[in-house]
Amino acid sequence: MKLYPAIDIMNGKCVRLVQGELNKSKDYGEPLEMALRWQDAGANYLHVIDLDAAVTGEFLNRELITKMVQSLKVPVQMGGGARTKEDIQIRLDDVGISRVIIGTSAVEDPDLLEWAVSKYGSRIAVSLDAKDGKVLIKGWVGETDVDVVEMAKKVHKMGVQTIIYTDVSKDGMMQGPNFEYTEQIVRETWMNLIASGGISTLEDIRNIKGTGACGCVIGKALYDGAFTLQEALIAAK
What we know:
Elements: E1 2-10, E2 13-18, E3 21-27, H1 31-40, E4 46-50, H2 51-56, H3 62-71, E5 76-79, H4 85-95, E6 99-102, H5 104-108, H6 110-120, E7 124-131, E8 134-137, E9 142-147, H7 148-157, E10 162-167, H8 179-189, E11 192-196, H9 202-210, E12 215-218, H10 220-223, H11 229-236
Parallel strand pairs: 1-4, 1-12, 4-5, 5-6, 6-7, 7-10, 10-11, 11-12
Antiparallel strand pairs: 1-2, 2-3, 7-8, 8-9
């Protein structure tokens, strides 16, 4: 199982949020410095979210993220604000992101998702961010009535190979992830699922692996020193 250290960018800084609330953030410094830190510690993939783009739709951190990608040897998957063909092309073709995560548009513009998958294949992933089993959009501030499991089935039929599932109510709380929904989505779709939100112990990592997930995103637990990345990589094996 792969581990994805998380780098959330807001106002040019690396931050961690609590339950996705922008007014509950903690600043951890420069994103590039943090990215290099996780690379040096053994990360084989990074999970970058442009929170500013997720909320505004504008790629305000393009220069910063381009520099990050050019400075790293490991691949980067990135989400936040990819809502048009141009948005997706800029991130993949110009910036050099390895895999773009589509969230809001997967719900609101399925034609765009179909186009992206037909053009870029496995370089397109879908983010399913949910609370109480319902999908959230627009940087977790937009509520929908879309069932997260049904949405996973829908994007699977469209050719999406990888989804990132986040239980927003668990994110940043250090209380463990939502194992039930994680396992249900894997069992009903057999997609490559990367679990996100709430990983707080090494046992959480072992249990996530037991759900059949192919990877998990680790954020606050790493930043606050609950365990080291080296310890987490061993647990993931």
